[in-house]
Design brief:
Keywords: ATP-binding, Kinase, Nucleotide-binding, Serine/threonine-protein kinase, Transferase
EC number: 2.7.11.1
Helix content: 25-40%
Radius of gyration: 25 Å
GO molecular function: protein serine/threonine kinase activity
Enzyme class: transferase
Protein name: non-specific serine/threonine protein kinase
Number of helices: 17
Strand order of the largest sheet: 1-2-3-4-6-5
Bound molecules: adenosine-5'-triphosphate
Shape: elongated
Length: 588
């Protein structure tokens, strides 16, 4: 259908111009010709992805329901555009909405702390409202928030549910499925990328949006390529630490460490005294009797203030790929439930400026805007953060691509602890070119029993992805992880603020000798560190039960400073717990 102006939709809405083009169709600025003043409105076109009459009816039905929800939201909340009408024309669906005159946040240059804070404070009640209605927005990002000119209030546009409707399908068993995950790579948290958004997923995306406003950078510039954690404080060194802690808590990797509700986050933000921990305490506090250890030579890292111009780097968000398809474990040095030990550094000695102060050249993640065709081998890496640190997933992705798995490459990091209690690598493959390919791939990545794992990989999963059932495979929990993996796992645990676990994996001799057996001094120290990165490990000795690993660490402190440590860690395998214990350490 040619929609060049002055095309009229529904014999009423005269198209003035195109505002945007997304995964499901176009968004237009239009004139309502059936109103005396011919007011301006926004017409959003939505095209179903599956073209079958049975599916069409389903989409039609769901579209009506979603439109009714949007009508209610727009009527009841001033910071959500009003729905004026909805209609169908030529097998396409349309929403007619209030035009919000103002500036989308992605067009703002860096905001001040005060402005960013106000935007957050103005949006949290909107989230409380929609969450109370049982609705998760699912695509919060600067592009989907318009700062209204008339009152400078942020208005939330582009709710995800209605777009999800367009991906509805009916599987071979006759049940309704959706073949797409709504959200924008980079802005959505792992559980949402894995197809399980929850209320705190919106809080994560909102906090990240605010961090983008504060730093003038996009998520790829703020994401640690090794761990995928959001590292941003070095760009805004003078930020109120309380405000920063609130944002960091909403940005926690594990949903259980975040605020559960928008109202909780709002309350934390409005609390005057800086008492919010960056994540909830995981252990009962022990009265401190020894002054907390702090780095004696923390090096100040001048923050990079050069604008990366995130507003100009377009993330074409929208749909991102296919929901869970066929799962099996890749590589997996099978591992134990939770990771091992660190040493709280007493001094930080390396004067090298932090690499975090220079913009990360990682390009924005690719977006899949249509479901991959079954002919293409499409794969997704899904991995736990503890593994990511040691595995360099980007590299593996490249390798997989060069091995012929040239589908849409994305790797996401879901919180699988809810499902299996254990983190593990998982590859989701839409379709194999044969079972042999699966076996070969797993063998290539070190899986000792690829046949066993590939038993789950059907040689011919069928033409429709919906015929494939998601499966989970747990790695063998009794297998031993390598010593360097043990070290990396430990620091990943510390980054998650799971201090009690870290402490439990230090030998009693270590605790006594280096920490005066003071758990609270240990946690206090780690609480001053925003993120610790394991930059390098080298196993210099490994006799099975004992190993020595030279480890280089970088500390990004919450106050914006950066420091480094080189340690020789002496590890001891604990058979009863299946973990590496740190017996001792030397500073190098
Ligand atoms: N109610 C509105 N008032 C003013 N501008 C709007 C409104 N809704 C959308 N826009 C603008 O229209 C453009 C396209 O918006 P929209 O988010 O609806 O679609 P998209 O990003 O093209 O596609 P997708 O729905 O796949 O994300 C954006 O620039 C957005 O700011």
């Amino acid at each position: 259908m040619d929609m060049t102006p002055p095309f009229c939709l529904d014999n009423r809405y005269q198209i003035e111009r195109t505002l945007g083009r997304g995964g499901f169709g176009e968004t237009f600025l239009a004139k309502d010709t059936k109103m005396p003043s011919q007011p301006i409105c926004v017409v959003k076109q939505l095209k179903p992805l599956i073209h079958q009459s049975q599916v069409y009816q389903l989409v039609q039905d769901r579209f009506q329901k979603e439109a009714a929800i949007l009508e209610k939201l727009g009527k009841e909340h001033r910071q959500i555009p009003q729905l004026y009408a909805y209609f169908e024309q030529e097998s396409q669906f349309y929403l007619v909405q209030e035009y919000i005159e103002g500036t989308p946040l992605n067009q703002l240059v860096k905001t001040t702390e005060g402005e960013a804070r106000q935007i957050l404070l103005d949006l949290l009640p909107v989230l409380t409202y929609i969450h109370n209605q049982g609705i998760i927005h699912r695509d919060i990002k600067p592009d989907n928030i318009i700062l209204r000119q008339s009152d400078q209030k942020p208005v939330l546009i582009d709710f995800g549910a209605v777009r999800e409707t367009m991906g509805l399908d009916i599987n071979s068993r006759g049940s309704t499925t959706s073949s797409i995950v709504i959200g924008t790579p980079g802005f959505m948290p792992s559980e949402q990328a894995a197809g399980r958004p929850i209320f705190s997923s919106d809080l994560y995306s909102l906090a990240l949006t605010i961090v983008c406003l504060l730093t003038g950078k996009l998520p790829p510039d703020l994401t640690d390529p090794q761990t995928s954690e959001i590292v941003w404080r070095t760009y805004v060194p003078n930020i109120d630490p309380h405000f920063a802690n609130v944002l960091d808590r909403a940005l926690q990797y594990l949903p259980r460490d975040r605020f559960k509700l928008a109202s909780e986050m709002q309350q934390a933000l409005q609390t005057v005294s800086p008492t919010i921990p960056s994540s909830p305490p995981t252990v009962p506090s022990i009265p401190p009797s020894i002054p907390s250890q702090s780095p004696t030579e923390v090096i100040s890292s001048p923050p990079s203030r050069q604008g990366a111009g995130w507003q100009s780097a377009v993330i074409t968000g929208g749909i991102v790929g296919i929901c869970a398809v066929l799962g099996f474990v890749l590589v997996s040095p099978p591992r134990t439930p939770d990771p091992p030990p660190p040493t709280p550094p007493e001094t930080v000695t390396n004067p090298t400026p932090s690499p975090e102060t220079t913009p990360n050249p990682t390009p924005p993640p690719e977006t899949v805007t249509t479901p991959p065709t079954p002919q293409v081998s499409t794969f997704y890496f899904l991995a736990d953060s503890a593994y990511r640190e040691q595995s360099n997933m980007a590299q593996r992705l490249r390798e997989l691509r060069s091995a012929g798995y040239n589908g849409a490459g994305q790797f996401w990091i879901p919180d699988y602890s809810n499902l299996s209690g254990q983190p593990y690598y998982q590859v989701y493959v839409a379709k194999f070119e044969g079972r042999d390919r699966c076996v070969e791939l797993l063998r290539q990545y070190g899986q000792q029993q690829p046949d066993a794992y590939c038993a789950l990989a059907s040689p011919n999963p069928g033409d429709s992805m919906n015929q494939i059932t998601a499966q989970e495979v747990r790695p063998n929990p009794s297998a031993r992880i390598s010593p360097d993996e043990g070290v990396r796992d430990h620091y990943a645990q510390v980054n998650r603020r799971n201090y009690s676990e870290g402490w439990s994996r230090l030998s009693s001799n270590f605790r006594q000798q280096h920490l005066q057996n003071d758990y609270s001094a240990y946690t206090n120290w780690w609480d001053t560190v925003a993120h610790v990165a394991v930059e390098r490990t080298q196993v210099v000795q490994n006799s099975g039960d004992q190993a020595t690993v030279i480890t280089q660490l970088r500390y990004d402190m919450k106050n914006g400073n950066t420091g480094r440590d080189r340690l020789r860690l002496y590890l001891q395998w604990d058979n009863s717990r299946n973990v590496w214990i740190v017996r001792d350490r030397d500073k190098l």
